[in-house]
Amino acid sequence: MFLAYVSEFIAFLSLKDRSLEEILEHAVKQTFNPLEVTSAFISQLNDKNQVEKVASFGILAEASNKFDTSYDLEVKLPLTEAINQHSTVWINSLPDWPIEYPTLQAFPYNSGEKSFICFPIEKSHTPVAVLGIFSLSVVHPDAETDAFLKAIGHVMSLYMYRNIHATPEFKNSMTKRTIHKPEVKDPRITERQRIIIRMISEGRTNLAISKLLGYSESTIRQETIKIYAKLGCNGREETAKIYREHLINTPDFQM
Question: Looking at the 3D structure of the chain, how many domains does it have?
Answer without folding.
Answer: 2
